[in-house]
């Protein structure tokens, strides 16, 4: 138990306190699956990197003031009748990428186009 207290102190000094949240689970998993030391370290570092990426993304999302609850399903197509819903939904499937086709959207820059692009 003293080892965990020392480890917690060192991880805090290295600014890695969140690593402790998954450490016990990863230790058990490493023993069960007989990971090498390098595999174990790689998994721990990957966990930390994933946590940091998620945290940075969340901070940037808040800072952007975007309304993240908007989706194509909730978009009000009656707002602008010039937007043809079936074509837009087909574009959203990205089948044109699989088929190696080009897509060109031409029109005046409006708030509607901006909302659709978000």
Report on the structure:
The chain is mainly alpha-helical and 118 residues long. The protein has 2 domains: 2-64, no CATH class; 77-117, no CATH class. It is 63% helix and 0% strand. The chain has 6 helices and no strands. The protein has helices spanning 2-13, 19-33, 37-64, 85-92, 95-98, 111-117. Helix 2 packs antiparallel against helix 3. The protein is elongated. The N and C termini lie far apart (50 Å). The model has no long low-confidence stretch (mean pLDDT 86).
Which range best describes the helical content: under 10%, 10-25%, 25-40%, 40-55%, 55-70% or over 70%? 55-70%
State the low-pLDDT regions, or none: none
Number of helices: 6
Oligomer classification: single chain
As a percent range, the share of strand residues is under 5%
Q: What characterizes the major β-sheet?
A: none
What overall geometry do the principal axes of the alpha carbons give? Answer: elongated
The rounded distance between the terminal residues' Cα atoms is 50 Å
Counting helices, strands and paired strands, the structural category is mainly alpha
N-to-C order of helices and strands: HHHHHH
């Amino acid at each position: 138990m003293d080892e965990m207290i020392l480890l917690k102190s060192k991880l805090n000094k290295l600014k890695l306190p969140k690593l402790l949240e998954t450490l016990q689970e990863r230790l058990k998993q490493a023993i069960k699956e007989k990971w090498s030391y390098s595999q174990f370290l790689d998994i721990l570092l990957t966990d930390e990197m994933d946590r940091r990426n998620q945290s940075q993304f969340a901070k940037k999302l808040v800072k952007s003031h975007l309304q993240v609850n908007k989706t194509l399903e909730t978009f009000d197509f009656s707002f602008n009748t010039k937007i043809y819903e079936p074509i837009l939904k087909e574009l959203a499937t990205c089948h044109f990428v699989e088929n190696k086709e080009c897509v060109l959207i031409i029109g005046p820059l409006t708030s509607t186009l901006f909302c659709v692009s978000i």
